[in-house]
Amino acid sequence: MKRTIRNFVFLFAALATVPIVCAHAQTKPKPKLVVVVMVDGLPMEQLHKNRDLFVKNGFRRFMDSGAMFTDAHQAHAFTLTAPGHAAVLSGAYPYQHGIIGNEWRSRDGKYVYNTADPANKYLDGSATTEDDGTSPKNFRASTIPDELAYATNGASRTFTVSGKDRGAILLAGRAGKAFMYSSQTGRFTSTSFYMPKHPQWWEDFYASKPQDKWFHQRWMTLLDAKAYERSLPDNQPWSSPRGGITKNMGAMYGVGETAPGKLYYSGLLTGPFADEAMAEFAVAIMKGESIGRNPKGATDILGMSFSSHDYVNHSFGPESIQSQDHLIRLDRTFAKLFDEIDRQVGKDNVLMVLTADHGFANAPETDVARGFEAARIDPTDLRNAVNTLAEKKFGIAKIATQHMTGGFTLDYPAIDEKKLSREEVETFIARAVVEQPGIAYSFTRTQLERGQVPQTRIGKLAQRGWNHAMAVDVMVIVKPFHFFASRSTTSQPTACTHGTPYAYDTNVPVMWHGPKWVKPGRYAEYAEVVDVAPTLATILKTRFPNASEGRALPILK
Description:
The chain is α/β, with parallel strands linked by helices.
């Protein structure tokens, strides 16, 4: 009897420890700082291609000791900067969050820039135009910064910075504070949506004009010549440099100016020095706002979107020596930045995620040399050809009224006046479009509204990228290795671009680092950028953003 009682006591004692262990597991400390790093226009293949040239604590911080998804994608049809940034911390696709492109036109033809808001202005005195982003007014989804601020009753703080306004604003959501690069002054400025004036640390940081230190510096290759044998040499005929940069390596920033001015400041974004400037400013934010050392103990977020890689790839192509050298230099900038973040917050207190808004096509000339059909397509030529056919059929001139992100809008009032069937006209236009060179698919408004697009990956990504209130009436998707590029009589067409649902445009890195919270490893399973938000929400124990459709990735400890 005594043995029975004693065994019961031991069993009771053992069982009593179970909830204590569970409670301990549930109280795992949250990160003091979440760092979200984006590289604008970074295909996953560029990381694979240059891994051996990276230093220890840059990209390889994630690749060697973090969790890396190699089959991760921006999973919407029109892979552009604004929709790609909007996806990361909202977990939503364009059909819900409403950012269908970098710009679009309303039904009445009015130009809309994705983050424009005329009610707000830049704080550093830079002129604010309709092409400048100042607030998340058009962003229809909540974000992790919004939900974390809600969960902590405003204690959590989010600061974001980017070379592009949309890169900062769409990461910040409504609860964060965004800083973006001014090509007029070379400074990272905020807007009146976020604050009435810049804080004192901002004034102190720019008192010595640190943005001017690269004036008349040259962008030279960083490594010896052998390292660049995997890329095309410079001075390719299709290169289309901008910002005063030349087709050859060794371009000088601010050439032609005797003192730093608009040419220098705008040109700075097109190479590696703007990345260094942004990293330095991000550190200034951390120190000035004590980010990661929240006095109320809440998790803070630092979001950084590095824009220059996109400009380099547009000008020279991801296969170029310029693109490779830029990535190598960005890697070194990351290593210094991450070291400083570790010093400020403590490496064990930081959770990091790195991703991109889109990948990149190669220059068509490169693909043709590989044996593929490839070309630039002028959207005006395409629309004119289709309108000519439609006018013969229906007697309506310029029935496709405008080209915008994703395809064409149609003149529905003229269609209705002739008592024509909208669906019949849409179908005719769609069929006429796919008969034109370089076009693979075309879907109509009627198809998209009814969810009747083909149940293929292209169809799924097309449906996700279409918002019924603002998107096109006839969606147009080009063939692989083709893209839209308007001809100009004053400048050479862009070397290459992005914006399609093909793997070279969608496959981007999704990489994590934070040994306390994520299991390291190389993950080959399919993932999407919209998975970032629910994964963070699970770690931070917040609500999922309101339009999130991603999943928590299987990396959680």
